[in-house]
Design a protein that fits this description.
The complex is a heterotrimer. Chain A is α/β, with parallel strands linked by helices. Helices cover 58% and strands 6% of the residues of chain A. Chain A has one domain: Beta Polymerase, domain 2, CATH 3.30.460. The longest helix of chain A is centred in the first third of the chain and has 28 residues. By secondary structure, chain C is α+β, with helices and mostly antiparallel strands. Helices cover 38% and strands 29% of the residues of chain C. In chain C, helix 2 crosses helix 3. Chains in contact: A-B, A-C, B-C.
């Protein structure tokens, strides 16, 4: 079987099982806790694990050292959550007229929407999607308000603006997180082109705020595409946990979630990444899915060679490294291959060649790489 | 069995296999290593510590190993791994202990968000603790070492570990890292002190470590109540100068000099507030170690116990 | 329409006499405040006040020679506290003829 749980290393199975059945943590031995906490921390899932365990078991019933590290995980997540809310409160005045859509993406959306899956997460930055035509004005307003670009190299700036779906990340004194302004969800010159107008049109206002979020189907598709089209998948088990959480949350709250998800997958041409994401979450996190939906999603399945290859590669790279070991040769090779794949998917071949040449030149020139 | 009672072969086997687990008070650390020079260094500096069950639950696990590939043989290096990842620069092969010590500091500082961690030396007498916050050039470690050698119990030279539940300080007891001239200063200050090997080529100059006294190791689980904060400043041009530091300023200086204050807010704010409210705060400029130690003893005696203050 | 000011929810103050340390519940930063600012914040934490009431409060605390500047001090303090996110403005309709 392609994605068998039994093929995963013991520490990964322990982490996955603890996430899906946190009540079992009540009977874990101390050596098991030791591995679990370290693997969860490596995977940046310690806070999420803590949230799930806290809902099932009192920390007082656990070994003291286990309890204090779960608490540490909750504390780090709580900090990130507050800093996300603070950033949004601070930049809201610079985002132009409230009529211009302000669509929160990923972690920032889950927090502002008050989804329970947000608990324990560690967002690295705040992702906001706005129409491309509005971005120039907003960029100016942010710069005037003291925001600055992380990358100031002219080539990097050009790369982001011409070829990417986002502006270079912005930072501001007093803000712990970066602000990433997007105008769509995938690189515009990439191989898959989602319907950006459709994303905005279906976005759902978040009550009590001036922000909106992608509709449930688009949130799942974005998470799937972001993982499988726009990243090297290395150490990104947490993204898979997000996808599983999103599906469970939205399927419970929306009776029409599944048909809408399939329809949106067709609209955005994101069926392939959706297939991979759900194959992985069903195998590793037991994501519930009605049989008829599974049958229809099978229609998006890639041809066998691609399927087998990618599944083999992500099996090696998505989970955290064994805390008592380190990435082996094959793991590192798998990461490199997936990295190359991500770049391949992001830019057309002619631009790829130009970009690679430029990167090499910048690394070798007297000033060194930025 | 204590580390001093274990023979070299046993230590080597533990380090190469399940790990050598040690309890520092507020945290347990598991050390793994394939560096053959390490066991005698650990015997010298951690001799008084009991060898804990390596299969138990530890707060932090570090692995100090010889570099792979070319760097195993050409200008050989040692690397420190924390849970399978390398987050620190490698060191030359002949400087393993400083990398291990700094690596443990780094791992503890980043993973113990269950306590407020201030960057400070901590000693105590009669259950009342003195915090010596760090700053470059402060001589914090030298002063902390000196106090520990003159009747104060050492809790840590690097971390003030503040409990959220009650604002008490816990020990994170490890050897004191001494640099450059202070190695000789402390050796002269207490000729019987156990100082480990010197490592001349670190990025901070020459580094050596002072082993904690056996009675301090035995007492490392006893908490202490914060009573005095002394911001030290080594200044050869000054005999001894003591200046009170307004508490609000002390709060700010401690917060800025903390490993995790920012992430812990609002619990960090409350915990630090308790420490500052309970303590009198001073700046101490000194050039003579004996005088500084006596002055701190006197300040501690003067500092009113928490219950006596309004 | 009256403009009144209120302390943000969740503020914590450590009063150390001449200076206080204040916890900002939105940014989670801590700020050092002088005695006047801390006193104003303390007053606002008890209930919303108008700028005029704050000016009167400050005038009591200031030295005789500084009292003419009470209005200016009050305005500046409110501005700084608002900028830090420690104080917010409440806009209320004046209650007329109820």
């Amino acid at each position: 079987m392609l994605l068998a749980l039994s093929a995963l290393p013991a520490h990964v199975r322990l982490l996955l099982q603890s996430l899906t059945e946190p009540q079992r943590c009540a009977s874990l031995s101390e050596p098991a806790w030791d591995v679990l906490i370290r693997a969860a921390r490596s995977a940046r899932l310690l806070g999420v694990l803590a949230a799930r365990v806290a809902a099932a078991v009192s920390f007082d019933a656990l070994p003291e050292v286990a309890g204090r590290h779960l608490v540490a995980g909750q504390i780090e997540a709580r900090f990130r959550r507050q800093k996300t809310l603070f950033l949004l409160e601070t930049v809201a005045p610079q985002l132009g007229s409230p009529e211009t859509p302000r669509v929160l993406l990923k972690g920032a959306a889950y927090i502002v929407q008050g989804l329970s899956m947000a608990e324990g997460r560690l967002p690295a930055d705040v992702d906001l999607m706005m129409p491309r035509v509005a971005l120039d004005g907003i960029e100016r307003a942010l710069l005037d308000a003291g925001w600055q670009f992380e990358k100031t190299d002219p080539y990097d700036q050009h790369y982001y603006r011409a070829w990417s779906h986002e502006l270079p990340p912005m930072r501001c004194a007093g803000q712990a997180l970066e602000l990433d302004l997007h105008h769509t969800i995938l690189p515009p010159l990439g191989r898959l082109k989602p319907d950006t107008d459709g994303l905005f049109a279906a976005a759902v206002p978040i009550v009590g705020t001036s922000f909106s979020a992608l509709c449930p189907g688009d949130q799942v598709l974005h998470a799937a595409a972001h993982l499988l089209q726009d990243s090297d998948c290395t150490g990104r088990l947490r993204d898979l946990v997000d996808i599983d959480s999103l599906v469970r949350t939205h399927a419970t709250a929306n009776p029409s979630f599944w048909p809408a998800l399939l329809e949106r997958a067709h609209l955005h041409h994101l069926g392939r990444p959706l297939w991979y994401a759900l194959a992985l979450t069903r195998a590793w996190l037991a994501t519930p899915m009605p049989e008829e939906v599974a049958a229809r999603i099978a229609g998006f399945s890639p041809p066998w060679p691609a399927r087998a290859t990618l599944c083999a590669l992500v099996t090696r790279t998505l989970p955290p490294v064994n805390p008592d070991g380190e990435p082996g040769l094959w793991d590192r090779l798998a990461s490199r291959l997936l990295e190359a794949r991500a770049v391949w998917l992001r830019l057309p071949p002619w631009l790829l060649a130009w970009h690679a040449a430029n990167k090499a030149w910048r690394a070798w020139r007297p000033g060194g790489a930025s | 069995m204590r580390v001093a009672e274990a023979d070299r072969a046993f230590l080597h086997a533990q380090l190469a296999g399940p790990g050598l687990a040690l309890d520092f008070g507020a945290a347990r650390v598991r050390i793994r290593s394939d560096v053959p020079e390490l066991p005698p260094m650990l015997r010298a500096l951690y001799g008084g510590y009991a060898i804990e069950d390596p299969a138990g639950l530890c707060d932090v696990t570090v692995k100090l190993r010889r570099a792979r590939g070319l760097r195993r043989w050409v200008r050989p290096q040692v690397e420190l791994l924390i849970d399978g990842g390398i987050e620190l620069e490698p060191f030359p092969r002949d400087t393993p202990l400083p990398l291990l010590e700094w690596g443990m500091n780094y791992a503890l500082a980043t993973r113990l968000c269950c306590y407020l961690l201030l960057h400070s030396g901590v000693v105590e007498r009669h259950g009342r603790a003195v915090l010596l916050p760090a700053a470059p050039g402060s001589g914090k470690s030298t002063l902390t070492a000196a106090l520990a050698l003159r009747g104060f119990r050492l809790l840590s030279d690097e971390f003030a570990v503040v409990r959220f539940s009650d604002g008490q300080l816990q020990a994170l007891l490890r050897p004191v890292a001494l640099k450059n001239e202070s190695i000789d200063v402390i050796a002269r200050f207490a000729p019987g002190a156990v100082i480990g090997p010197r490592f001349p080529k670190t990025h901070k100059g020459t580094v050596a470590h002072l082993a904690p006294a056996a009675e301090h190791v035995a007492a490392r689980h006893a908490p202490a109540a914060p009573a005095l904060v002394v911001f030290p400043r080594f200044d050869p041009s000054v005999g001894l100068e003591i200046e009170p530091v307004p508490k609000a300023r002390a709060f700010a200086r401690l917060a800025v000099n903390s490993f995790n204050y920012e992430i812990l807010s609002p619990d960090g704010f409350d915990a630090l507030g308790r420490v500052v409210q309970a303590s009198t705060c001073y700046q101490l400029r000194y050039s003579d170690l004996e005088r500084a130690v006596d002055a701190i003893g006197a300040l501690l005696d003067e500092a009113a116990p928490a219950s006596a203050r309004h | 329409m009256t403009v009144r000011y209120a302390a943000a929810d969740g503020i914590r103050v450590l009063d150390f006499g001449d200076e206080s340390v204040v916890f900002n519940p939105l940014s989670w930063d801590a700020h050092l405040l002088n005695a006047a600012a801390a006193a104003v914040l303390d007053l606002l934490a008890q209930g919303p006040r108008s700028a005029g009431e704050l000016e009167a409060f400050l005038r009591e605390a200031l030295l005789e020679s500084e009292r003419p500047q009470a209005a200016m001090h009050a305005q500046r303090l409110l501005q700084e506290l608002a900028q830090l996110g420690l104080v917010r403005q409440l806009r209320e309709e004046a209650f007329a003829g109820r």
